[in-house]
Amino acid sequence: MAQIAVLDELKANRKGRELPGGHMAWRTDFIARKKEDPDGPVAFLAESSPKRVLRTHYHECDQFQIIALGGGTLAKHTLAFGGIHFSRAYTPYGPITNGDQGIGFITLRAKRDPAGGAMFIPEKAETLKSVKNRTPWQVTEMPTFKALAGGESSSVVQFKEMQDDRGLAGYAVTVSANTKVAAPAPTQVGQYIIVTKGSLLTQGQEKKGMAVIWVGGDETPFELHAGAEGLEVVVLNFPREELTPSKSVTAKANGEFKAWQCVLCAVVYDEAAGMPEHGIPPGTRWADVPENFGCPDCDAKKSDFELIEF
Ligand SMILES: [Zn+2]
User: Fold this and answer.
1) Residue 138 Cα, ligand 1 centroid: separation in angstroms?
2) pLDDT tens digit string along 183-199?
3) Angular region, 279: left φ>0, alpha ψ -120 to 50, beta rest
4) What is the largest CA-CA distance in the chain?
5) Gap from CA of 296 to ligand 1 centroid (Å)
6) Which residue, among 70, 88, 87, has the nearest Cα to 79 in the 3D structure?
7) Three-class SS of residue 187?
8) CATH topology for the 3-140 domain
9) Model pLDDT for residues 111-145, shown as the tens digit of each residue
10) Cα(301) to centroid of ligand 1, in Å?
11) Theoretical Cys-Cys bridge with 104: which of 25, 47, 126, 301, CB 3.0 to 4.6 Å?
């Protein structure tokens, strides 16, 4: 049976703790670890105060994170409200620098992190590199909801970037008022549904505001029943867990140009393409990339990149 947690009903559970440098962090459990299923799904809202910096780290499980409050930056990327980050197990990401409003992420895992917490870089870099056949990869996507045309009961927009050959998928679903539709089916690992707007009718009650729903891999598609204001949800399907040699290299041999890859998080620097979004024009040779270059996803150093042999 699906587990449903509504933020407004959980506010009394918000726990704060002091961090070094005068910062604060708060945690609100949506789906807490259970005694009878200690390795089962875990979902929580993690908030922290403005300007706090969370160093680059990885986890030993796949996870989604949705920005539910405020914003900031992840390495060289902007983290905006509503944006969703997916990271495979053993993929470092960060540092995360909170903006002026602080930041709140809902972290969503299909199972408990075997490591028990963040594994920080550089301390755990050698441990990370010793993991056999890891396939590091991460992606950020901003969901786009499609407005309903007259008479349309629902719309589904699949995420463009957040998909892989293991079943990873995301969907932005809009449901018109007082209408029932089945959500996209979960993968065998399971699925989270996050209510971002409107209200959900379930078990004879109307649930308003942000809610998180866990649908296990053996369950039937969840029934999305919209209340009087309609409903918008994000559906996030976990990929199958496989440790197989990486197929995530997207660069191709391109004449004289070469490609270099971050040994920590697998980002590729392709000389032909450059990284114009980070100020490096197409055609810039690796030798000409500034020595203070940092990986756009995990902040690794230029010396942490290796030449890809095609
Ligand atoms: Zn990297």
Assistant:
1) 10
2) 999 999 999 999 999 99
3) left
4) 65
5) 7
6) 70
7) coil
8) Jelly Rolls (2.60.120)
9) 999 998 999 999 999 999 999 888 899 999 999 99
10) 8
11) 47
